[in-house]
Specification:
Elements (H helix, E strand, L loop, with lengths): L2 H15 L11 E4 L13 E3 L11 E5 L8 E5 L9 E6 L7 E11 L6 E9 L2 E8 L4 E8 L2 E9 L8 E8 L2 E6 L2 E7 L7 E7 L3 E11 L2
Antiparallel strand pairs: 1-15, 2-5, 3-4, 4-15, 5-14, 6-11, 6-15, 7-8, 7-14, 8-9, 9-10, 11-12, 12-13
């Protein structure tokens, strides 16, 4: 076999063995700034859940506001009413993952019964997922597993949460290990094996009105 033919054969083998587009480490990060999404719409790929009574789980839409962390737009949950166990959820299609780093900035706007919001990950649907949330009314951060629509608290951390400023929630999960950070400070480090993979999303509860900005998902090995 000639050297040129050997060279062509080697190239063919390497191309066959190469990973598909989207499977390389360079393609495992996605950021939603909402700045290029049309106002008054739900971003493409976002799916609003349903409440326990079958109604749509909140009023989720992009709005333009001077309060945006990164100008000019945010994703808001704007339904300012709801029962105690009305969980307002939105999940993102195409985000099925197991090991990941997930981060979002949130700004509490209104709420008398509840306030603030949180991150969802490893969601099989809008009734089964992990959740970490920050609540300025209770002045705490908590982590839950939600099974068949019922929350089971895993850990609580009391912490001062200023309603006048943006805050950041970040989750890093690998296998059963889960780490949660609030404003870049470690809050939780635990192991739970209830859910192994699923989609990511955002969450508010009851009458909480909340803005979300700069949502970032990164797959990790």
């Amino acid at each position: 076999m000639s050297r040129s033919l050997q060279h062509l054969l080697l190239i063919s083998i390497l191309m066959t063995a190469a990973p598909a587009i989207g499977s390389s480490s360079e393609d495992t990060t996605h950021t939603w700034t909402f700045d290029n999404d049309p106002p008054e719409t739900l971003p493409s790929g976002f799916q609003v859940g349903t409440l326990f009574d079958g109604r749509t789980a909140g009023e989720w839409k992009v709005i333009e506001t001077v309060q945006a962390k990164s100008q000019p737009r945010v994703l808001g949950q704007l339904m300012g009413k709801g029962a105690e166990h009305a969980y307002k959820t939105v999940l993102m299609r195409g985000t099925q993952a197991s090991n990941l780093e997930l981060q979002v900035s949130l700004l509490p706007i209104e709420g008398k019964a509840d306030m603030g919001g949180g991150l969802i990950w490893r969601a099989t649907d809008d009734r089964n997922y992990y959740l970490t949330r920050a609540n300025p009314l209770e002045q705490n951060i908590r982590i839950y597993r939600v099974v068949k629509g019922v929350r089971h608290m895993l850990k609580n951390f009391d912490h001062v949460i200023d309603v006048r400023q943006w805050h950041t929630l970040r989750v890093i999960t690998k296998g059963c290990q889960v780490q949660v950070f609030f404003d870049d400070k470690p809050v939780f480090d635990l192991c739970d094996q209830t859910f192994t993979a699923g989609r990511v999303g955002l969450w508010t509860k009851s009458d909480a009105v909340t803005y979300f900005d700069d949502l970032k998902l990164q797959l990790v090995r």
